[in-house]
Amino acid sequence: MTCLHMSLNKMVFFICVLFIILSVGVLCKPYFSSSNYRISCIDILHSIVYKDRPECEGCTKSWSWMQSSPVAKCAFKKFEKPDASVMLNRSWVVFAGDSQTRLGMLSMLKLVEEPERVRIVKEHLKKLHTDYSTNIDSIGMKLDFKWKPYARRLTKLMLEFKKNEKYPDIIVMGAGLWDMLYETNASDYDVSLRSLRNSLQDLNSKDGKVPHLFWLAMPKLISSKMTPEEKRHKLTEPRRSMYDNKVNASKILNKFGGPLLKLDIHYLSELCGPQCTKDGVHYDDVVYDIAVQIMLNAVLIESTHKPPF
C-alpha cells in the first residue's frame, strides 16, 4: 500500500498522506494537533444511522454517519472506488475467518473491482469452504480470503506470517460461529483466543512494516430464522454473548489493551434489524459494506497519526 509501506520511502509516505488528506478529505487539518484526536475518532467510528429501514427483505438500504458534533469533527468519509483505489494502491489485504469474514472480503472487493466480477466471485464462494485470492492489477493490490472458521486456525495463520517475516498491510480476522456450532466448548475458545493474542505480539516484517489488525465480531443471531434444528439450538444470542465475553476477557481487542480493533458486526446487524437477514446469521451486504468503510477510516486515522520519520 503506497500509504502504508512506510519503510519503502519516507518522503513518498509523507507526500501520499498529504495527497489522501487533500483529495479524499477524510480528516481535517484543524484536528491533527489534538493529542486525543486519534483515540476519540476511533472510538466513535461506529456512530452510523440507517437513513431508511424498509420493513422488507432485499430492499435497498442507505446509511450515513451521525451528524453529531463529535462525529462531524472527525469528518469520516464514505470511500468510493477512486478514493479506495488510491488508499489501497500496492497493498496486500487479508481477510481470515468464517463466512462472516468472507462477506467482509466481498464488500472490500466491491470497492476495487467491477460489479460483474464481484457477482461471479460471490456466486462461486457462496457454497464453498475454501480460500480465495485475487490481484487487482490496475492498482497493484492483492486481496486474499483465508478460510479459517475456528479461532485456533487463525493462530496458525499468524504464526505462518511471523515465520516468513512478511505481513499483509491489513488483516481482518474473525471466528466464533463454528466454535459455537461444532466445538461447543467456550473454555477451548477462550484458550484459542489467548493463543491468538500471543501470536500477534511483535509483528514486525523484514521491511519494518506493521499490519493494521481488525477483529470482525459475530452478528446478531436470530434463531427462529435458522435451519436446521442444530443451529437454532446452538447459535443463540445468549451463547453468542457468552462467546463474545471470551473475546473481551482474552484482551485481544484494542479496547482492552490488545492489538485488534473491533468491527462490531453485532451492533451494525442489530441496528439494521431482522429484515436484513434471511437465515438469522448472514446479513445484507450493507452491514459488511459499513464495516469495510469503518475499517478504511480507521486505517487512514492510524496511518496519519503514526510518525512518518
TrEMBL record:
<dbReference type="GO" id="GO:0045492">
    <property type="term" value="P:xylan biosynthetic process"/>
</dbReference>
<keyword id="KW-0812">Transmembrane</keyword>
<protein>
    <submittedName>
        <fullName>Uncharacterized protein</fullName>
    </submittedName>
</protein>
<feature type="signal peptide">
    <location>
        <begin position="1"/>
        <end position="28"/>
    </location>
</feature>
<dbReference type="GO" id="GO:0016407">
    <property type="term" value="F:acetyltransferase activity"/>
</dbReference>
<dbReference type="GO" id="GO:0005794">
    <property type="term" value="C:Golgi apparatus"/>
</dbReference>
<keyword id="KW-1133">Transmembrane helix</keyword>
<keyword id="KW-0732">Signal</keyword>
<keyword id="KW-0472">Membrane</keyword>
<dbReference type="GO" id="GO:0016020">
    <property type="term" value="C:membrane"/>
</dbReference>
